[in-house]
Amino acid sequence: MKKHVISIALAFGAMLSAAPAWAQPNTAQSTQLRAADYDGTWNGTVKCLYDPGLWPEDECDIGLAFDIKGKDLRVQQTVRSKKGDVTKSEINPGRFSFTRLATNAVAVSIEQGNDEDGTWVETWNFVMTLKDPNHMIVHWTRVVNNLDMPAEKKGSRFSSVGMGTLGRSGQ
């Protein structure tokens, strides 16, 4: 019985040493990634995966700038019109909650207000993971419900979704 256990252990060891590099754990890279800091300024573009078509003059892809300090996140978006006009705005200042676990993070802001269409409720959500210490993959979702608008009216309830990579500024 001992002979079989030793044979199996030797065979398994030989298999691991012959496995391709991608199958081998890279503990130095893994440790570096887990220790990487989210704090700082990040910039990039989120490519639109779904657009309800409510803003026909604007491109759906948005530029994003994150300023992260601990649990605080400030988000600036840059929207470009199809004619090339650029509009920058801060999204829900002071309203984002930011939570991180190892290499992943989530930022959420839920806001409500009133405008010419009545009461609205809006949620912005960013789901992130570190690709390396200086790049993050971001999934973005924005959901809006204009409560006082008739459900059949265009723009009464909608969602936009996108994905992209943001890089740490200065890298």
Write the layout of secondary structure elements.
Blueprint: H1 2-18, H2 27-35, E1 40-50, E2 58-69, E3 72-81, E4 86-91, E5 97-101, E6 104-115, E7 118-132, E8 135-146, E9 157-168
Please describe the structure with a list of short key phrases separated by commas or semicolons.
alpha+beta, nine-stranded antiparallel sheet, 2 helices, Lipocalin, 171 residues
Number of strands: 9
Class by SSE composition: alpha+beta
Radius of gyration: 23 Å
Architecture per CATH nomenclature, i.e. the level-2 architecture? Beta Barrel
**H/E series:** HHEEEEEEEEE
Short description:
The protein is α+β, with helices and mostly antiparallel strands.
Describe the structure.
This protein has two helices and nine strands. The protein is of the alpha+beta class and 171 residues long. Strand 7 and strand 8 form a beta hairpin. It has a single domain (38-168), classed as Lipocalin (Beta Barrel). The chain is elongated, with a radius of gyration of 23 Å. A nine-stranded antiparallel β-sheet has the order 4-3-2-1-9-8-7-6-5, with no helix packed on it.
